[in-house]
Structures are given as structure tokens and as C-alpha cells.
Design goal:
By secondary structure, this protein is of the alpha/beta class. About 35% of the residues lie in helices and about 25% in strands. It has a 6-stranded mixed beta sheet, with helices on both faces. It binds adenosine-5'-triphosphate and magnesium ion.
Length: about 260
């Protein structure tokens, strides 16, 4: 019976519009993502992909339209409220404390998730399950040996891994990653994608990505954002064959 049930939509983006003082960036964006799906958003530079993430993650309010998460309209809620609802976005090192070491950075998020943030009676170092969870996440992202390293001393690839570790520290159900492999070498990219694939098992991922090899190897479904709206959504093979996508985007990548 269970196997026959359709997987549910965890995220529904409905007719999202966004203007910046007259500049119409998003003009009616619609797509949905099912539970445990890996969904990629692709599209030309300046198409509005990051703006869309800023709206889903609560950084910007949409000019109109709604974001539905697990059946609930979350449009316009604060990033903090969304973290509590288990939506988490990786913010390119802006949620990493450069002066703290790797372990301390991840532990801060784990403590927060354990609801210990305002408990001044217990010292963080004295809570075994928080430390265990932190170790587990560091191992998952390949930073087990870097716990003592100050965040500012990490290599580029390790910084990206730490961002993902911090993202995982609050046990998100929906993870948003904006170009996690930007600036990486081919080898770093391959390693990073393996890691992302592993850590997002049993979670839902929405990823913005320019590298088509990454997109086609990782994503279950893809939406193409073009001229302010979704040109087409579908499985990778459908997107690859779509003439509109080739004309609007893939053609220019290949050329
Ligand atoms: N806060 C803002 N204020 C004004 N304009 C903005 C703001 N944020 C984004 N824009 C504009 O919105 C458009 C889309 O930008 P956005 O960063 O969302 O594109 P993108 O698809 O993520 O591009 P890229 O692939 O280069 O990352 C651009 O014209 C950008 O200048
Ligand atoms: Mg962007």
C-alpha cells in the first residue's frame, strides 16, 4: 500500500513575483518539489535564481505569490522561523564564525537545534549528545580531522564543506544550496557532489547549479528559470531533450 502512495509535495512555489524598485526579476514562478527529491534550478546568469532562494529562505518577501512548505503558507516568514521549521539554506560562509574552530561552529548549530540556546546553566562542552552529534556531522562531510582548525584557516573546499555541516547542524528537512561547487576544481567538485548526495539522503534538496555535469548526475528533477518564470520542469532526460531549454540555456552552455 505504502509503495503505491504518491510521494507528497514538501515545497510548492506558487506564482512568485519579485520586483526591485520597478525591475521585474520574477514574474510568476511556479514549481513543486516532492519529499526526499533532489531538485535543481538552472538558468542563465541574472535569471533570478538567487532571488528565488532569498524568497524561499525568508531573506526577501515576495512582491506577490506564496511559498507552501508541508501544506503551510510560509511566505514572508523570517529566516530564523524557517530554520525552526526545518528549512535551511547554506549562506556562503556568512553563517560561519571565522574565529571559531570547525567543531565549535557546528556545535553552535547543534546546540541551537537541541533547544539549549538559552540554557546558561549547562556548559555546552558538558552535553555529550551535542558533542556526539557534532562529531557525526563532521565525519559525514569529511571534516572529522579538522575539528580543531579555525574556520578562517580552511581550504576553499573545506570551507564549503563546513557551510554544509553548519546547514546540517539544525537537522533540516529541506536544504537549499546556492552553487555549492562554485570556484572548485574538477576533483573538488566530484568529491563535493558525492558528499552532498550522501548528506541529503532522506532529506529534500533544492540546489542552484551551473555545472551541467553536476546537475544531470545529482538531480531527480530540474526546473529551468528563464525570463522571470519557469520555462519547464521535468526529469533530467526530459530537460536535456527539450528544444526550448536548448535554445534558452543549454545551447549557450555548449557553445
Ligand atoms: N537586492 C537587490 N536589489 C536590486 N536588484 C537585485 C537585488 N538582488 C538581485 N537583484 C537583481 O535581480 C536580478 C537577478 O539576480 P540574481 O542574483 O537572483 O540572479 P541569478 O540567477 O542568481 O544569477 P547568477 O547565475 O549570476 O548567480 C539581477 O538583475 C540582479 O541585479
Ligand atoms: Mg545567483
Amino acid at each position: 500500500m505504502k509503495a503505491m502512495q504518491e510521494r507528497k509535495d514538501i515545497l510548492q512555489v506558487r506564482d512568485i513575483h519579485k520586483d526591485f524598485s520597478g525591475l521585474k526579476v520574477l514574474t510568476g514562478v511556479d514549481f513543486e518539489v516532492k519529499e526526499n527529491e533532489k531538485h535543481a534550478i538552472i538558468g542563465p546568469n541574472g535569471a533570478g535564481k538567487t532571488t528565488l532562494f532569498n524568497i524561499i529562505s525568508g531573506k526577501y518577501k515576495p512582491s506577490s505569490g506564496s511559498i507552501i512548505f508541508k501544506g503551510e503558507d510560509i511566505s514572508g516568514r523570517s529566516p530564523h522561523a524557517l530554520t525552526r521549521m526545518k528549512i535551511c539554506r547554506s549562506f556562503q560562509m556568512t553563517n560561519v564564525f571565522k574565529e571559531l574552530n570547525v567543531f565549535e561552529n557546528v556545535r553552535a548549530g547543534v546546540r541551537c537545534d537541541h533547544g539549549l540556546r538559552y540554557n546558561f546553566l549547562k556548559r555546552p562542552g558538558s552535553i555529550p549528545e551535542v558533542n556526539e552529534k557534532t562529531e557525526e556531522i563532521l565525519a559525514l562531510v569529511g571534516l572529522a580531522d579538522a575539528g580543531e582548525t579555525p574556520a578562517r584557516e580552511l581550504s576553499y573546499g573545506q570551507q564549503r564543506a563546513l557551510e554544509i555541516a553548519v546547514t546540517l547542524s539544525t537537522e533540516p528537512e529541506l536544504i537549499l544550496l546556492d552553487e555549492p561547487t562554485a570556484g572548485m576544481t574538477r576533483e573538488e567538485t566530484i568529491e563535493a557532489i558525492k558528499m552532498i548526495d550522501k548528506v541529503t539522503a532522506n532529506r529534500t534538496l533544492v540546489i542552484i547549479e551551473h555545472d551541467m555535469d553536476v546537475v544531470f548526475s545529482l538531480a531527480d528533477t530540474i526546473s529551468v528559470l528563464h525570463n522571470g518564470s519557469i520555462l519547464v520542469s521535468g526529469r533530467p532526460e526530459e530537460i536535456r531533450e527539450d528544444q526550448r531549454v536548448k535554445d534558452a540555456y543549454l545551447g549557450e552552455e555548449a557553445g
